[in-house]
Every structure is written in structure tokens, then in C-alpha cells.
């Protein structure tokens, strides 16, 4: 598995480079995704080790991190956007890329390949799809947490209102920091908002913040809190009564969860 892992990493580095361009804006998007891939891959490995998975499964988690956004490169080159609603679902596109352009997939066992595909396909959906396979479910949870952890890092510099203006188009949806009424209502109720309806920068921040409710492992919640990301996103929001209420709800949830998890390791059951 280690040899295959190295080969796959080399393939991915070459694949990303094949999209390099003189167009500054496109290149910025490509570099950002390449860097994101590196961080997510490392988070997957760290989380899998933290969960005490077998060496084989640690590599499997790494492979999923490595390829989870492989569809982003083709998406950005064709559509010039990372917005799935305005182009196509980048996870589904990624699976197509793996089928068409990644001969190394054949070196995985059929079971491992199915796990990699399931986790990638479900890394960005609102909910993880149905599966009776425990390892597929576990790997989907790992990649979802690892991905969210790094997206908070990517977002952090652009959270201040004045910086938001300077953010690249793919981070910054619109100039408005305002939160649309449906997003504010969902946030107040602690209900996952539908990212397809994002209209303002404020809406996007609400969706990112609500991810806290969707984290699967204590490990990830601790990292997100340690880095101060949650507070940063909260501070960037306009303080309407609905938002204040939603923030209070979330702070209570986090405090309860951390209290319960304090000293308790993440348990997995394969
Ligand atoms: Fe993704």
C-alpha cells in the first residue's frame, strides 16, 4: 500500500501541475486547491492515526484526502467557478476524472476502490448517503471532518468585512455581509441551511458556521476551537437578534459537547 500511496501522490502532483496557467485568477484558484489538498490529506492521515486505524486504513484515508477534490481542477478550468450550483457537483465530477484519467485506481482492491469512491462522492453532500458498509461510512466521516477543518483555514483571512472585499470571487459570493432571512431562521433553529440557496457572503458564513453541528469527531471539534475559527466566523456576522440567538445555541452545544467528550476518546466501531 505504501508504494501505491507514493505513486498516487506523484500522479496527483503532476495532474495539478497540468492545469497551471498564465491567467492569474485561474492560477490562484488552482494553487489554492492544490494547497487545500495537501492540508486535507494530512488531516485525514492524522485523524485516521488518532482513531488508531490499521496502517492500511490510514493510507486509505490519505488516498481519499488526496483525491477528494480532484474534480475541482476540471471544474475550474471548464466553468471558471468552484460553485457547484452554477456548474456541476465537483465530487461526482471527481469520480469521473478518476475513472477516465487515473489508471492507479485499478491497483486498489475492489473493496478499497468502492470505499474511496463512496467517501469522495459523499464528502460534500448535505448528508452522507445510505450504506451498510461501516468502513465506507467511517471514511466518509473522516474526509468530511478533514475537509471542513481546512476550509476554515482557507476562509479565515477573509472574514473581516474589509478583507472580504479583497477575497477572490470563489470565496466571496457578494458584497453583502447581511444574512438572508431564511438562513438567519435556520441558524436560530440550529437547522442545517441549504447551500444551494446562498445569496450573500453572510449566508455563506452561516453555512460554514453550521458545519460545527456536523462534525463527526471530538478531534476535529477541538482543532476547530483551538484555531479560533468558530469565534472568527461568529465575530464576522452582523449581530441581529436571530443571529445572536443562533450563536447562543451554538455556544451551548459546543460547551456541552466538549464537556461530554472531555477525556473521552473518539470511539469507532468497525
Ligand atoms: Fe470538495
Q: Could you please describe the fold and organization of this structure?
A:
This protein is mainly alpha-helical and 270 residues long. It folds into two domains: 2-152, Hypothetical protein af1432 (Orthogonal Bundle), CATH 1.10.3210; 173-261, no CATH class. It is 64% helix and 0% strand. It is built from 13 helices and no strands. The radius of gyration is 19 Å and the shape is globular. It starts with a helix and ends in a 9-residue tail after the last helix. Bound molecules: fe (ii) ion. Fe (ii) ion binds next to loops.
Q: Termini separation (Å)?
A: 20 Å
Order of H and E elements: HHHHHHHHHHHHH
Compute the average pLDDT. Answer: 91
Q: How big is the Rg?
A: 19 Å
How many domains? The number is 2
Strands, total number? 0
Give the biggest sheet. Answer: none
The structure class reads: mainly alpha
Give the helix level as a range of percent.
55-70%
In CATH, what is the class of the largest domain?
A: Mainly Alpha
Q: pLDDT below 50 for ≥5 consecutive residues: which ranges?
A: none
By DSSP (H or I, 4+ residues per run), the number of helices equals 13
Named once each, the bound ligands are: fe (ii) ion
Please state the second-level CATH architecture of the largest domain: Orthogonal Bundle
- The CATH topology of the largest domain comes to Hypothetical protein af1432
Oligomer: single chain
The geometry reads as globular
Secondary structure layout plus pairing:
Layout: H1 2-17, H2 24-50, H3 55-67, H4 70-79, H5 90-101, H6 110-121, H7 134-155, H8 161-164, H9 181-189, H10 201-210, H11 218-226, H12 229-236, H13 241-261
